[in-house]
Design brief:
Radius of gyration: 18 Å
Number of strands: 7
Number of helices: 0
Amino acid sequence: MAVLQWRKFNFFDKDIVKDPENGQALDRFKGLRITAWASGRGTLICGDAEGNIHMADHSWNLSSFQAYAMRLSHLFQVKQSNLLISVGEDDEGGISPIVKVW
C-alpha cells in the first residue's frame, strides 16, 4: 500500500530585493497594509488600506498619492494603455464604492 505524502515544488528562488542606492534590503513597502496589486507598463502598483496608490518603477523609485479618503479595494492596469482603474471608498459606511480612472 502506498503512503500518501505532500510534495513540495520549488518553482521560484527566494531572493531578497536590494535597494540599488545602498545595497540594503528594500523596505519601502514595509509597514504598508496592501489591499490590491497591479502591474504593467514597467511599473508595480499597489494600493493600501489608507486609500493611497504606490507605484514602483524598474529602479524601485517609489511615488505615491492619496486616491481615496478611506481605503482602496481593487486596482486594474489596462493593457496597452496608460490607464489605471481603481475602486475604493471615500465615506465611512463604504456602502457605495467609487470607481476612478487615472
